[in-house]
Design a protein that fits this description.
Blueprint (H helix, E strand, L loop, with lengths): L7 E2 L4 E3 L4 E7 L5 E7 L2 E6 L3 E15 L5 E4 L2 E5 L4 E17 L2
Antiparallel strand pairs: 1-3, 2-3, 3-4, 4-9, 5-9, 6-7, 6-8, 6-9
C-alpha cells in the first residue's frame, strides 16, 4: 500500500531521542493506527505494547529482536516485533518507516 485513504492524522509529532526519531500518528475508521516517520542515523531501543509491523520504506538499518541475532534491511523490508518486547536498532542512513500496530 503506497497511499493511505480515509484516515485522520494527529498533527502533534511523536519525537524521540532528541529529535533523531520522529513520527506522526495515522488513525483509521476501524480503530487501527499506524505511525509514519523518519529515523536519523544512531542507535535506539524501543519497547512495544502491541505487536508491531515495521515497514522500512527506504534507508539502511540493523535490527535485533530479543533472543535473536542482528539482521539488516537495506532499501526496503519488513520485520515484526512481538507485543511487550524490546528491540534495538542501528540506523546507518536516514530511514523512512511505517509502523503498524497489530491487535493479535
Amino acid at each position: 500500500m503506497t497511499q493511505l485513504q480515509n484516515v485522520s492524522i494527529i498533527k502533534k509529532a511523536n519525537i524521540y531521542f532528541d529529535g533523531k526519531v520522529t513520527s506522526r500518528t495515522v488513525l483509521f475508521p476501524d480503530g487501527t493506527k499506524k505511525t509514519l516517520g523518519i529515523m536519523l542515523p544512531g542507535e535506539y531501543e524501543f519497547s512495544t505494547d502491541l505487536k508491531e509491523e515495521m515497514d522500512i520504506l527506504a534507508g539502511k538499518l540493523d535490527y535485533k529482536l530479543t533472543g535473536q541475532d542482528w539482521k539488516t534491511i537495506e532499501g526496503s523490508g519488513v520485520f515484526y516485533v512481538p507485543a511487550n518486547e524490546t528491540f534495538q536498532l542501528k540506523v546507518h542512513t536516514t530511514t523512512d518507516y511505517c509502523c503498524s500496530y497489530l491487535n493479535e
